[in-house]
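Let's practice the habit of predicting before peeking. Look at the sequence and jot down your guess about where helices and strands might fall. Then scroll down.
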Amino acid sequence: MVKQLTQAGIAAFVLVAMLYAGSVIAHGKVSLEEDPCTRQINENMVHLSAYQPQYDKSAHYCTEIPLAGDTYLVIDLIDSAIRNMPVTVKVYRGNETDGESVLQLPAKLHPDGVINGTTNLEKGLYSVIVTAEGIPPLKYQYRLRVEMVDYMKLLRASIVPVMGLLLLAWLIYKIKPLQRLRKWRTPQR
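Done guessing? Here is the structure:
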């Protein structure tokens, strides 16, 4: 019985590990098209990275920034066509229409493909608007969450482990009656 229970536990663990592995990779090993920090209009792409070296020198973030404070925003103009257009960057607390502007970088060419700026972000929601002034203009938008818990992301991340635990509980429930049946069929000595 112990052997069967151990095998069932190992099988459940392997199943949960296989199902959960895909969500663990989230940002690190994905193509640019699938990267949540990349925005694309036609074949033109931009990439946003946010840094807070005062808290962690090597970490970079995208739309979920863990702590309020000075934040370095770096926008990579991936396609060379955008590098030949004047590009503006605006950051609003809230949204673009009724939010307060906290950072505005004027329109200019960026032949090296990198735009950077620093601003102090307090706890809350922000909008980052990157506009390439071409014909037609290209407008890329990011929603930043600073020092906020994303409950939907937390719920999605917890579904697989909970399902694994339920599967394990079901396996244990199914194996228990087998143990009682064997004890009943075994002759008494």
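How did you do? Residues 151-185 form the longest helix (35 residues).
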